[in-house]
Design a protein that fits this description.
By secondary structure, the protein is of the alpha/beta class. It contains 26 helices and 30 strands. The strands form 6 sheets. It has a 7-stranded mixed beta sheet with strand order 9-8-11-10-12-13-14, sandwiched between helices. Helix 21 packs antiparallel against helix 22. The two termini are 48 Å apart. The model is unreliable at 255-263 (pLDDT under 50).
Length: 697
């Protein structure tokens, strides 16, 4: 049941639109919306607003929106930046539901523009007007037609109605995305250039489109995530409704890592965090623009699979090899044909030479082979997706190459086809039949990788209130926003994470009640990376060696970090384990709390072998993180070594992630490096910790 409200209708199906700042000069951008609305079939009322004109392109013009007659649902604002607040105020007085602001010069220009934008939002809220933009090119709706845009490319395009909606943070890319989609044979329901997202954002728009019967999937072209919780809620609703959200996100770069205090923050960039966010909320991410339009048919009537086994059937050995090799590089599991398929082919005198592929190169044109084999793969329980690869027959004999694919009984299983040659007719037939067809091996592999990474939205995790209360009490005794290691270890122990025994000595000649050998470290909240400052000495054999080491540590730290306040020497019991792990927690400014597990030690940033999730995580998710880190394979009994205590490690990962549920205290970063994993049944032990708070207690 469609649940459109006033906002949806005002955005995508307005009855009357005011064009504030409309121009009578056809060469100007501000004249284009009026022209586009009419040329693309808008059936409602257009109200040009221009104090210097009585008529624009045959439409009666008015000096102000206050002077225009009748109800106005949507205002398109094109006046100079200093006149925008007054225009919004007048929209409020007229009861306009939503205003799209084409005008730029706001937050995208810097701090002064950001202040102007904030003032604009306040004006809109005072008068009950919702805002799209500013600095956006507008919207396009196909049913009913509403081409409310200044985008010149959109004016030239004949947009086919269809099930795909686009939300783009780049106005200039909107036309490019639509033209690529139209060239690929797809149609669109709604197209939105969202601009600065001062008010209406990606999340709220996705939420509106979930209830739109004309929309079957939502495509996102985004540069940043500005309201992660809102988009997460909308994505969960979309998943429940069976409407995939597919994202092409810019920003796969190293920027931002240098600002982190912890190794965790330095090795985990924003892009890895975004990937974790998408996975947790059931959003598919693609790396190729073409995949945005080719992937949706693969997802129709599908839910994320528990397994991701891909069976490949091909009539071209080379074409199959290109795809299979690429699938292997992205970690997709390509499974060989089932014994039943091999047996049936052998009965027809066909032998499969490549164990990975059902290779029908020499029999693909036989009607008694191609269709039946495909049907058998689709019916088999040994795979979760079938990829058919076609060679030259798809170019010259589409009825042979494509018809069996189109008519196949899919048994509810995803079916895709990569066509090696340029075969327009075959691709058209696939498009019309709702089969995912791919023109390039790159987009084919990108789509299957995205499908394989697709997971249901993460269930809400329970909080451990007792442990969080203990953490809060431990933090109340700490001073400042950066904790020294002893304070940090107290917090981690409150979470249930065991720390190595330790004592603090105020002077180098003080005695300790620990068993030698021991480790000595500088105790200072001002020295985050003690090894770099010369503040650590391992393997101290006796009391005299401890005295000398403690003196040397103080001397080195004072030389390397003169401003550091030294609170003593932390003497710690030497510990050992099968593997060193880094376990971190961070509050990402875009996404929120995350937990990170990786190969630990001083080289953690170099190896960058880690798994990241939104916090908190349960034990099952923690176990999955352990399996994801290549360097932790040693914990499974690698080359005769005893197995490590992965279950104890999973428990600690889950415990650390509970920091994401802490209220009243915002944690910037927390880290244990290293956490030593002992043999199975002997647990784990932390030997170094860092804790940085963002806000006071």
């Amino acid at each position: 049941m469609q649940r459109h409200g006033d906002l949806f209708d005002a955005l995508f199906a307005p009855r009357a639109i005011a064009l504030v700042g409309a121009s009578g000069d056809a060469t100007k951008n501000t004249a284009r919306p009026q022209r586009m609305l009419r040329s693309h079939g808008f059936g409602g009322t257009i109200v040009p607003i221009n104090p210097g004109r009585d008529e624009i392109f045959g439409e009666r013009a008015y000096p102000s929106i206050l002077d225009a007659p009748g109800r106005i649902d949507h205002a398109f604002i094109m006046v100079p930046v200093d006149a925008v607040p007054r225009a919004i105020e007048e929209c409020g007085k007229r009861g306009v539901t939503v205003a799209t602001i084409y005008t730029d010069g706001f937050a995208e220009t810097g701090p002064q523009g950001a202040r102007l934008q904030e003032e604009l939002v306040n004006v809109a809220r005072q008068h009950g007007v919702r805002l799209l933009g500013p600095n956006c090119s507008g919207i396009y709706s196909t049913r009913p037609s509403c081409a409310l845009s200044v985008n010149s490319a959109m004016e030239q395009l004949d947009v086919t109605p269809g099930p795909l909606a686009i939300i783009s943070q780049s106005g200039s890319m909107t036309g490019g995305l639509v033209s690529r989609g139209l060239g690929r044979g797809v149609g669109f329901s709604r197209i939105v250039s969202i601009g600065n997202e001062a008010d209406l954002g990606v999340g709220e728009l996705v939420d509106l489109l979930v209830d739109d019967d004309a929309t079957g999937a939502v495509l996102l072209f985004i540069e940043s995530i500005r309201d992660a919780p809102r988009l997460a809620r909308a994505a969960r609703r979309a998943a429940e409704a069976g409407k995939p959200i597919i994202a092409y996100k810019l920003g796969r770069s190293e920027l931002g890592r240098d600002m982190a205090a912890s190794h965790t923050g330095a090795m985990v960039g924003a892009d890895e965090v975004v990937d974790a966010y998408f996975r947790a909320n059931g959003i598919l991410r693609v790396d190729n623009l073409e995949t945005l339009f080719e992937l949706p048919p693969l997802l129709v009537s599908q839910r994320p699979a528990q397994q991701h086994r891909v069976a490949v059937m091909s009539t071209t050995g080379g074409g199959a090899g290109i795809v299979v090799d690429r699938l292997g590089t992205v970690g997709v599991n390509v499974v060989p044909p089932s014994p039943k398929v091999i047996e049936n082919l052998a009965a027809r005198g066909i032998t499969i030479s490549d164990a990975r592929v059902t290779d029908l190169t020499h029999a693909g044109t036989r009607a008694d082979v191609y269709g039946p084999v495909l049907e058998e793969l689709l019916a088999s329980d040994h795979c979760d997706l079938v990829l058919a690869v076609a060679g030259s027959s798809a170019q010259f004999q589409p009825e042979i190459a494509v018809e069996p694919v189109i008519s196949a009984d899919r048994n509810g299983k995803p079916l895709a086809m990569f066509i090696a040659p340029h075969a327009v007719e075959s691709l058209r037939l696939l498009d019309e039949s709702g089969v995912a067809g791919f023109r390039t091996p790159e987009s084919c592999v990108d789509a299957i990788r995205a499908w394989a990474c697709w997971t249901p939205p993460k269930e809400e995790q329970l909080t451990d209130d007792d442990r969080l209360a203990a953490v809060t009490r431990a933090l109340e005794t700490a001073e400042g926003t950066t904790l020294n290691e002893r304070e940090a270890s107290t917090v981690f122990e409150a979470l249930g994470i065991p720390f190595a025994r330790s004592e603090i000595i105020a002077e180098p000649d003080h005695e300790v009640a620990l068993t030698f050998p021991v480790v000595a470290k500088v105790l200072s909240a001002d020295v985050l990376h003690k090894t770099d400052a010369g503040g650590v000495q391992l393997g101290i054999a006796d009391a005299e060696a401890l005295r000398l080491s403690a003196s040397a540590i103080i001397e080195r730290v004072r030389a390397n970090v003169p401003e550091a306040r030294i609170e003593g020497i932390l003497v710690q019991q030497m510990e050992s384990g099968l593997a060193e792990v880094i376990l971190g927690f961070r509050h990402d400014p875009q996404i929120g709390p995350i937990v990170v597990l990786g190969v630990g030690g001083v080289m953690a940033e170099v190896y960058r072998d880690f798994a990241v999730r939104l916090a908190p995580v349960d034990l099952d998710e923690a176990r999955a993180m352990i399996e994801e880190v290549s360097g932790l394979k040693v914990l499974s009994g690698f080359r005769g070594l005893p197995p490590g205590d992965k279950e104890a490690l999973a428990q600690v990962v889950s415990s650390m992630s509970q920091l994401g549920c802490l209220t009243g205290i915002e944690i910037s970063e927390a880290e244990i490096n290293p956490l030593l994993v002992r043999e199975e049944g002997r647990g784990v032990v932390a030997v170094d910790g860092l804790f940085v708070l963002r806000s006071g207690r």
